[in-house]
Amino acid sequence: AKNISSMDICLYNSSMTESIEYNVALEQKIRRALEDDKLYFVLQPQYDTKTKRLRGFETLARLNDENGNPISPAMFIPIAEKTGLITSIDNWIIRNTMIFFKKVLNKTDKDLLLSVNISVLHLLNKGFIDEIKLMLQETEFPPNQLEIEITESVFISSISKAIEILNELKNMGIRIALDDFGTGYSSLSYLTKLPIDILKIDKSFIDELLVSDSGRNYVAAIISIGHIMNFSVLSEGVEIQDQLDILANLGSDYIQGYVWGKPMNTSDVLKLIGITEEL
Length: 279
Ligand code: C2E
Ligand code: CA
Ligand code: CA
Ligand code: CA
Hints:
The chain is α/β, with parallel strands linked by helices. Helix content is 51%, strand content 19%. α2 crosses α3 and α4 (86-107) packs parallel to α6. Ligand C2E is lined by residues 44, 60-61, 72-74, 77, 86, 90, 93, 117-119, 179-180, 203, 236-239, 256-258, 263. Residues 44, 60-61, 72-74, 77, 86, 90, 93, 117-119, 179-180, 203, 236-239, 256-258, 263 line the site of ligand C2E. This is Bifunctional diguanylate cyclase/phosphodiesterase.
């Protein structure tokens, strides 16, 4: 299962980055959209697998082109990373979701988490910790209800620096999620060195659950590793009940996926939580 899924990702990336003209056009599109304030966010719910209790939400960036059509993050995030635009995108998304979610937390007794994606490049930026501190202050957001999602690629580029930054975030009370687990260059030795709270199993593995025994065994193994290391485990991209049933049996603590909730706009978030007043 592992080889097949990493191959898929390579094929996808190479076809997307084939044409220089295409990329330049897309970069221009992205810059224009950013100038025109066409960036916004949606939130996808995460649930406890056994009880279906709402754990919190992951915030996902969205960008519309001049015709109002969404540009997929799978396209604009990699370009934004190459051009350095990612830092301003991440910061805009984090600040604005924190502002929104702080208001939500003021209206509910529920202990909900907000998960945000941080690009490796951004995480390793000098000044990243100060930016986060400032945003927490400005928004009065409780650090222990903020979770930062990072992918494994961070450890390829600079493991010791990454560990240092993650430890600082941890000391501020922020939670750390290891995103897309299994798709990168996973090494058990670094897992033990990282202040991680939760492993997120990539959708490509969840897709294999019902396809083959080996696919299912692979997910079982990841869940075991996570638990042995004292992490929680969340399965991403769960689309159907049969996958959910297997994941409940295998002991995946949390799930995120279309089966229980698609990424949604802020008014649907309020409905889901049961907040009827205006914020
Ligand atoms: P990700 O962090 O792995 O996010 C999960 C992706 O899976 C999201 O795609 C989500 O919409 C999608 N998804 C969730 N459940 C299901 C499901 O059941 N079925 C299917 N088919 N898809 C599901 P999205 O929103 O297109 O984002 C793609 C990637 O772009 C994200 O992957 C993340 O790596 C990146 N991204 C999105 N927003 C941001 C951001 O604000 N900052 C950074 N740095 N990256 C972001
Ligand atoms: Ca993520
Ligand atoms: Ca992911
Ligand atoms: Ca991903």
